Task: inverse folding
């Protein structure tokens, strides 16, 4: 294919290269650089070595953020690896009306996280539907949005609720590839439903489970919107529900934003994100061997 | 890239649609009645859990000022449905301007992503030039950068360009996403080369081959890119929250956040606002489900 103007390949690629260069790769590099400066929104700043990281270690809010983002991964990922798989098994059979159910279960994925967050803020309100139901059955009202830990737990539940349909579709595609002979052979051998799930289904979709684990753990560690909306911009009682990305947003923006310090927190986010990916993929390899 | 490949192989087999309404399991055997009943009961329970919250929000938005929305046991249907709350939202915040801003941002995002990703994807897949491998690598790296970690630097870049607090600034960082470029690249790579070769022999130049032959063959992927670009821009929260400070430029999600922050105790009002924000996307989803599902597998890496 030589009949192309020598410049045309670059004309094709140029818009994309320009956008990712200016708005993704350059900001990435400048985040790494800024992390070692005391740059502020309106002040260029100077090189300060590891000062930001030294301050980070002593910053209680940083540890709170790291704790909450880590708890988020631990709470959300197991649920998002297992529940959508069960859901996929539930909607796998082609029974009448099943396409309707599949679509309906996907609706939360389509909605904006802001809409989802606000719907649940109202549902979990002191006087909201969930508490009205709990009271009606005699449990009494629960302060889902006023207690530091219940807030975090509620936000996790919302993340899981919104993600169910998405991962369900991924699992459905994987389940379609499971050879039916395996199930039949296991059934002939007298294996019950639970046994077949453990010995046939799980091994067959294991690589998909790893994929879901990797995707959901990275997303969970970077959680922002759910907690921001449910706990408020300051992160709940005494800021105890602040996540790392919330801390980045809070310290780095505005006219007095500490760009350098926020970048140092971002570097921690990068490092943990990469570590999580490697961890999941490595766990995958170890199990394989 | 193994993740992308896994996701792609998952996507190549779309979830089996119900082609035959027979009541059989996936092995073609009949399903027992009690098992079927149990299945439907579970399906209905999950349905209540996933769609119920939206309906409760809709119901709340339709309840008038005199109706008790806090009753226990709860009242699921509004006694006298009214659109009063929707009028009040429009009186409280310029919600239709916000919707228009969201529409502008989402439409621009669709156009730039479809055009930019198709062009760049074609260059990566089909054109020979020095630096192609490096260009591909740059897009892969860009796809792996966690956006949440670079928002502050993106914001300072926007300030340097004088584009903070503009809708252009909202669109630009995601206007040609690396993921979409790589999706288009893979789509072009999967096309048989012979047709383009024949066109080349017939004297078609690179633009003609791109526009007349390659692009029409990857319409499905373009549709997926378009839908996810629209949804992504319409639903986005963190970036517009950071880049927009002037309330007259807000998009719907930021406007809703403002509404919630200022009128948190007016649940009917907030409910009406959320329904305005979510209704267009649910309508879009209802019409174009196929592409939404197809996009999940292809875009799984986006996480």
Result:
């Amino acid at each position: 294919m030589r009949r192309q103007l020598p410049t045309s390949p670059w004309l094709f690629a140029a818009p994309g290269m320009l956008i990712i260069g200016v708005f993704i790769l350059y900001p990435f590099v400048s985040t790494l650089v800024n992390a070692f400066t005391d740059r502020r929104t309106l002040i260029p700043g100077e090189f300060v070595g590891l000062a930001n990281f030294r301050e980070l270690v002593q910053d209680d809010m940083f540890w709170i953020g790291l704790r909450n983002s880590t708890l988020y991964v631990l709470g959300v990922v197991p649920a998002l690896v297992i529940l959508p798989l069960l859901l996929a098994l539930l909607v796998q059979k082609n029974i009448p009306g099943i396409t309707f159910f599949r679509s309906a279960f996907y609706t939360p994925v389509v909605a904006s996280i802001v809409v989802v967050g606000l719907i649940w803020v109202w549902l979990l309100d002191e006087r909201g539907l969930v508490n009205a139901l709990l009271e009606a059955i005699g449990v009494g009202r629960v302060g889902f949005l006023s207690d530091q830990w219940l807030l975090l737990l509620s936000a996790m539940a919302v993340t899981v609720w919104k993600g169910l349909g998405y991962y369900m579709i991924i699992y459905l595609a994987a389940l379609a590839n499971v050879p039916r002979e395996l199930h039949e052979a296991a059934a002939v051998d007298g294996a019950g439903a639970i046994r077949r799930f453990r010995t046939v289904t799980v091994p067959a979709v294991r690589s998909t489970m790893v994929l879901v684990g990797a995707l959901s753990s990275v997303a969970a560690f970077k959680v922002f919107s759910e907690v921001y909306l449910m706990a408020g911009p300051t992160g709940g009682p005494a800021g105890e529900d602040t996540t790392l990305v919330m801390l980045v947003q809070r310290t780095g923006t505005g006219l007095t934003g500490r760009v350098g310090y926020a970048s140092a927190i971002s570097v921690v986010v990068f490092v943990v994100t990469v570590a999580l990916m490697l961890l999941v993929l490595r766990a995958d390899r170890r199990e394989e061997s | 890239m193994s993740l992308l490949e896994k996701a792609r192989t998952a996507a190549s087999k779309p979830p089996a649609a119900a082609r035959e309404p027979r009541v059989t399991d996936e092995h073609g055997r009949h399903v027992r009645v009690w098992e079927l009943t149990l299945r439907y009961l579970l399906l209905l329970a999950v349905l209540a859990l996933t769609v119920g919250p939206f309906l409760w929000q809709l119901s709340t938005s339709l309840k008038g000022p005199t109706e008790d929305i806090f009753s226990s046991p709860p009242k699921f249907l509004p006694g006298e449905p009214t659109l009063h709350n929707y009028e009040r939202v429009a009186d409280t915040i310029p919600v239709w301007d916000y919707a228009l801003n969201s529409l502008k941002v989402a439409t621009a995002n669709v156009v730039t992503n479809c055009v930019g990703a198709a062009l760049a994807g074609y260059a990566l897949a089909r054109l020979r030039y020095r630096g192609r491998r490096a260009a591909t690598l740059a897009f892969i790296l860009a796809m792996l950068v966690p956006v949440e970690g670079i928002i502050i630097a993106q914001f300072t870049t926007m300030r340097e360009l004088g584009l903070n607090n503009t809708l252009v600034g909202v669109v630009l960082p995601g206007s040609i996403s690396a993921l979409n470029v790589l999706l288009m690249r893979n789509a072009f790579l999967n096309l048989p080369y012979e047709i383009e070769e024949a066109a080349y022999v017939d004297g078609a130049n690179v633009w003609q081959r791109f526009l007349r032959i390659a692009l029409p063959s990857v319409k499905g992927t373009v549709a997926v890119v378009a839908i996810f670009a629209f949804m992504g821009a319409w639903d986005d929260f963190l970036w517009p929250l950071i880049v927009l400070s002037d309330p007259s430029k807000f998009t719907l999600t930021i406007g809703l956040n403002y509404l919630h922050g200022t009128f948190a105790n007016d649940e009917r009002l907030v409910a009406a606002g959320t329904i305005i924000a979510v209704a267009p996307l649910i309508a879009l989803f209802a019409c174009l489900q196929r592409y939404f599902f197809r996009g999940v597998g292809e875009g799984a890496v986006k996480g």
